[in-house]
Amino acid sequence: MFIATSLSYYKRLDVRKEIVAQAQDKEISVIFNKSHFSKRPDVLSYEQDVFEFAKKKASSFHCSEELWHNPLSIASGMKRHELDELRKGWDLLLDVDCPDWEVSKLITHLFIKALEDHQVKSVSVKFSGNKGFHIGVPFQAFPEKIFFDGSMKETRTLFPELPKRIALYLLSYITSHYVKIADTTISILDKVFSHQDLEKVAKKSGKTLFARQCVDCAKEYKQPFAQKKVYECDNCGHQSRPQGNPEYIRCEKCTHPVQVKTSSPSCSFCGSKKPPRSFLNLLAVIEIDTVLLASRHLYRMPYSLHEKSGLISLPIGLDEVLTFDKDRAKPFSAVVSSSFLDRSHASAQETEFLLQEVLGGDLAKAGHIYLDDRSASHELKEVELPEHAIEEQYFPPCMQLILKGLDDGKKRALFVLLNFLSVSGWTYPAIESFIYEWNERNPEPLKEQYLKGQLAQLKKGKKPMPPPNCDNHDYYTSLLVCKPDGFCSRIKNPAMYAKRKSQLASRKKPRKKSSKKSQKGEKKEK
After folding, report:
1. What is the pTM for the complete model shown?
2. Fold classification of 2-179+288-329 (topology level)
């Protein structure tokens, strides 16, 4: 019955076109007869290929999260650097799964909300075909290079480390922002659950809602906390391991009488012997499959059938998750309308705030997320701060234009302003007040949460870093604020413009002239 259904379903031209579009630059694998994978690597180039596989009893199609220059060049046993060379990029794919259907929808909705809270716009979602959802962000939404673990790296090479960090950060963000714990209830967004209800959900996946953790290091105890019997000789210190549980034995080493003692287990992470404490383990309910975030791991393609449920993996609108009905994913009633991982409008700037939160420590050292080599080559130089804050009248033309407010590029402008003010002698409170005033001048102000996040990064930074140099076209030229005056040709950085202008102004201030009487008095004394 399933083979007949799949053959009939994959005859649909709209389905085949969408599957082939999703297969571009990706490694493909096909499941036949509900159980056997095709030989890897493989690709899908034509709509007819999908139907030919279906005639050979293909039940579903799967693709890689990674994008490759040539997927057919991938070979088993390749080393990390070889895969990095072949990898063109990767899409962020969050596999949200939960044994309870309503909770699964709720958690998926919260992950989407968390991404939107961090200004990520190119988010798409699809029903997995069975119990959960896949949330996707295309690789085009990430910068080409970032400062990662102490050095500049190409983002395409940071797989799976970076997407795993993002997934864990978002999970932590959700639990801290949208989950409230009371004595007998747990509120997730606006829905209230009893402890017993969520305990039942956790047990479905073999977990427990209440777990134990070390008092000192807060690591979870995987094994039950219990006392152990120890046969340690008081004479020589040797520990014997007799069979059974005798009360007395003779030492295996020196034959001295040994009495059984009880010893509490210690934490395997920090060695603490303090009894563990109980805590509410929300990860037993709010879970995300990080196994998917592994090299060459595959996920079910959009509009592909699911062998167990007989439904299709259907892309849906972000606002449809909470009300989604599985009947919409029946093969012959499903409509091909929504796209998954739409790359057409993705921008490398939209994940800046998210990455700053995920990699806060690294980015505080680097100053920002570098978009190309030009910005990385200059901005890490430290500068000597002026004794007093440089007044606004000495700011260069580009800063003066930014301060009037912008229609586009406000996030980049904010980064430029923060670095410029920090190396111009301005204190953090003064910068904070100034930035909020500037934001009100923008026709469409940035969200307050975004401002707070950027200001928080500035506050964490140990040493102020200058803004991008004048020749960095991703900033001043693209923001349409590069209107040089006669003084601009003498400097390479806006911060240097302000510093030199203020120094020249202080030198030109007229000195107080001494009176003629005092001058005569001085002559007489001489």
Report:
1. 0.63
2. DNA primase, PRIM domain (3.90.920)
